[in-house]
Specification:
single chain; 0% helix; 56 residues; mainly beta
Length: 56
């Protein structure tokens, strides 16, 4: 699991690295499903290695 700390907000997004394409992420949705995303739905940032940290 990885965590994206939204820019300018307190929101945190839990994401999983998608295997192909490498620039996509899987976001866990409220209903327990998963959605493939490239941009944070809250702050609009493009998710990349600099904006996503491994959950410890």
């Amino acid at each position: 699991m990885n965590i994206h700390q939204c820019i300018g907000t307190e929101a945190k997004l839990t994401v999983i690295r998608y295997t192909e394409p490498k620039d996509a992420w899987l976001m866990l949705t409220a209903d327990g499903g998963k959605a493939k995303i490239h941009f944070c739905p809250y702050c609009g940032s493009e998710l990349d290695e600099e904006l996503v940290n491994e959950d410890e």
